[in-house]
Specification:
Blueprint lengths: L4 H28 L6 H6 L2 H21 L5
Helix pairs in contact: 1-3
Length: 72
């Protein structure tokens, strides 16, 4: 497989964006779990595990909004 310089740069930028998104997702999980999950632990999770935790967090946020309970 042979790529041009432009294609290599585009691939690198894409990978950097993916890395940034994963880090942001991991840090969000840590924040929402209020220390119940460390950054290192969150980075060790598989894609599927992060996806499941993200869905659980979203469900709890929606439940909190619907119930009128405070969310900080």
């Amino acid at each position: 497989m042979s790529l041009s310089n432009e294609e290599i740069v585009a691939q690198i930028e894409s990978m950097e964006n993916e890395t940034k998104a994963i880090k942001q997702e991991a840090l969000k999980m840590c924040w929402y779990m209020r220390g119940g999950l460390s950054y290192t632990e969150s980075m060790d999770l598989s894609f599927t595990e992060r996806e499941i935790i993200g869905k659980i967090i979203k469900e709890h946020i929606e439940t909190t909004k619907e119930s009128g309970l405070p969310f900080f």
